[in-house]
Specification:
The protein has 9 helices and no strands. It is mainly alpha-helical.
Length: about 210
């Protein structure tokens, strides 16, 4: 089984959800208010996960990576791509909100176009980031800097942690699952995911089973 960093495993979850949204919006039936509400619920989680991830990269990951040799120019490029993604994210956020209100064919088409653009710019960024940085994460995973970075990322509430694990593991392949769970003691993961991941499994996961 090929090794991957947790960062790349999280990226896989973003790619997965973006395709789920594109597929769902492409199949949306005009007037289906229930489906519009479901997609808005799933979107709220995705939006929060993506914003938290990229803000965390800027605040936590980039300083750690720079301290172990990643160039400032590369990290500046990553931040510029984050800005492009943020603009596409804002347009998609507005489009999903409109679809939630109206469930109209017109708003579904607008949301699909916005989601496709968000998918395009996000996947370009994720691919670029992995090309530049994935090898560093793997080569330096046992350094003090990377371990400290991991501890910083883990400073979230149990509810946030449980939702994150339930979301990231939803449909993850074996490599991604191993990367996501490998740094968390199994008893801790069982409690966090089991108890605090329930809301995701109840409200969001079923959206993708319909």
């Amino acid at each position: 089984m090929a090794e991957m960093s947790m960062n790349k495993a999280i990226h896989a979850a973003f790619r997965r959800d973006l395709q789920r949204f594109v597929d769902a919006l492409g199949a949306f039936s005009a007037g289906d208010q229930v489906r519009a509400e479901q997609l808005a619920t799933a979107w709220a989680n995705f939006d929060e996960q993506l914003v938290r991830h990229h803000e965390g990269e800027h605040d936590i990951a980039w300083p750690a990576l720079e301290s172990i040799g990643v160039s400032r120019d590369v990290l500046t490029q990553m931040d510029a791509e984050h800005d492009t993604m943020a603009a596409a994210l804002a347009k998609t956020r507005d489009a999903i909100a409109s679809l939630r209100r109206t469930a109209s064919a017109e708003d579904a088409a607008t949301a699909l176009a916005a989601m496709q653009e968000l998918q395009r710019v996000t996947v370009l960024h994720l691919d670029h980031e992995e090309t530049e940085i994935e090898g560093v994460y793997l080569a330096k995973k046992d350094t003090a800097e990377m371990k400290a970075m991991g501890r910083q990322f883990s400073k979230v509430s149990p509810a946030q942690g449980g939702t994150f694990f339930a979301w990231a593991l939803d449909g993850a392949d074996p490599e991604a699952s191993a990367a996501i769970t490998g740094t968390v003691p199994k008893p801790v993961l069982t409690i966090i995911n089991g108890i605090f991941g329930r809301n995701y499994r109840k409200s969001v996961a079923p959206v993708w089973r319909n």
